[in-house]
Design goal:
The protein is an all-alpha fold. It contains 15 helices and no strands. The protein has helices spanning 3-28, 36-43, 47-65, 79-82, 95-104, 107-120, 126-132, 138-168, 173-189, 194-214, 219-231, 235-248, 253-265, 269-281, 288-297. The protein is elongated, with a radius of gyration of 28 Å.
Length: 299
């Protein structure tokens, strides 16, 4: 074997070793480039490796100097997110101030705000993400939509796991409660659409009916059952559940509000007005929330 053949194979082994290290670095998130670049490095000896490193440092310096970030940031629950320090002054518990921020603030501030939310707990800000998804700023929309897709995927995975556990242990009351609780949270987020939402609402109705049948009576279960049936337009089932609930909790304002909404949805105006007058005439303490609903629907 000639000396130049030895040199060739040594260089080839070094090249393959560098490509392996680049691939591992990309998978581990150390190198901020797409996985496709590992193939470029493999097919273009030496210059491919140099190109990967140049792109890595270019992306890295961009992330350091600007609030706009790359695709890697879209992994909502990744360790990279958890390691970033948030500016607590940017994230407020007020949805109104966030909505105003989307309209009034500069693109840089809007992007910084949504990144703070993604770094915090995106599932707690689904309503804001839905508003951001309709923003004029395409980058803000991209962040918001990607985050909502990630949340929906995680929800689907958790629901699948709960379904498997419930299938194996249908008589476990704690598992039934956990399944109902998580499925309701998913429905409340409003990320399900069309037939998927209807299928899951029908599933929730079956689960919550079983939970209520096992007892004890819990007002929140009845309230969720009523609201779910109202969304499904199952007004007969909603009325039946409401009647039982109001026997248990006749002074619960949430059920009174649902009764008003039920009559309004069915356009039973005379019954609605009669109920509103009875509520005003009765010796009941009405909170500001109930008074506001009565004022809205009263002639």
């Amino acid at each position: 074997m000639f000396w130049y053949e030895i040199v060739f194979w040594v260089l080839m082994l070094l090249h393959l070793l560098c490509c392996a290290l680049i691939y591992i670095g990309i998978r581990a998130g150390v190198l901020k480039v797409r996985r496709l670049m590992a193939l470029v490095a493999l097919l273009v000896p030496f210059w491919g490796e140099v190109l990967v490193l140049v792109l890595h440092f270019q992306i890295l310096f961009k992330q350091t100097d600007r609030s706009e970030v790359g695709v890697e940031k879209f992994q909502v629950d990744s360790e990279l997110y958890k390691g970033i320090q948030r500016d607590e002054s940017r994230v407020s518990g007020s949805t109104v101030s966030m909505e105003e921020a989307l309209i009034v603030n500069t693109p840089k501030e809007r992007r910084a705000l949504i990144m703070d939310i993604l770094n915090d707990n995106p599932k707690a800000y689904v309503e804001f993400l839905k508003m951001a998804g309709n923003n004029d700023d395409t980058e803000v929309v991209h962040y918001a939509v990607t985050a909502m897709v990630q949340i929906a995927k995680e929800n689907d995975q958790t629901l699948w796991e709960l379904e498997q556990k419930y299938t194996q242990n249908p008589d476990d009351p704690e598992l039934l409660t956990a399944y109902c609780e998580f499925l309701w949270r998913c429905l409340e987020q409003g990320l399900m659409q069309g037939q998927v939402e209807r299928m899951n609402r029908n599933l929730f109705d079956v689960l919550i009916q079983k939970k209520m049948g096992l007892g004890p009576a819990v007002a929140e279960d009845y309230l969720r059952c009523i609201r779910n049936n109202m969304e499904l337009k199952n007004y007969t089932a909603a009325a039946s559940c409401m009647e039982k609930a109001m026997r248990f909790w006749p002074r619960n304002e949430e059920f009174l509000i649902e009764k008003i909404q039920y009559l309004a949805d069915l356009e039973r105006g005379e019954e609605l007005q009669a109920l509103l007058h009875r509520l005003e005439e009765k010796d009941l303490y009405l909170t500001a929330k109930v008074k506001e609903v009565i004022a809205f629907w009263k002639d």
